[in-house]
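Entry:
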Amino acid sequence: MLQEPFADGNSLIHQLDPRIRLVSACVYSTVVALSLSFSVLTTAVLISFICVMLAQLPAREIIKRIIALNSFNVLLWIVLPLTFQGPIARTLGPFTFYNAGFIMAAQITLKSNSIFLIFMSLVTTMNLSVLGYALNWLHVPDKIVHLLLMTYRYVFLIEQEYQRLIRAARFRGFRPGTNLHTYKTYAAIVGMLLVRSAVRADRVHNAMLCRGFKRKFYCLHEFNTGKQEWLFATAMAGITVVLIYFEWL
């Protein structure tokens, strides 16, 4: 089953209407992604961090995820200064580092951390099923919502089927290695997994039709937009407008 470690909580963020959180996160992230000013990006990281604090998420889990994200950013700090052209920042032997590369790496690092933290605080604090219903309320195409909800519901079954096939192969003496037999075995496992997944999907679809499924999921979760939701939406809109003002005006 997909893990949702931040979905259960009683913080201010958890109590907000999922639709408000989703729209706020998407609009805010779009503005941050298009920004280039370091003052704006630094402010955005600070605002995202404040949202994480309001969500009362466990610090250890957040730090682990930030480290995983920035391990990719470290590669950018190595590659981009060597590939961008412009004023030279430093030369070390045969390697020439350019200022433009460092600037781009810094911008990407600030943007990715800001967007990551805002989605961590506003979106991962809701169940994936609730996220699907919120997307449906926001008139996201039904097919996308269906794909999201069905993937969430049945992806763990595919994982169980894969483990069953692996166990069956091991019982027959299969030991993975770097040889043609291993590659053929894994190819057969993947092929059988696809076949069994298709068969399972057919059975599930027929079962849903027998129960009156009409290509629409009905949400049992009632969304309530009250005073605190409008206050939060107004605050996020104001912050976003301020970021836009300092970036483009």
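DSSP finds nine helices and two strands in the chain.
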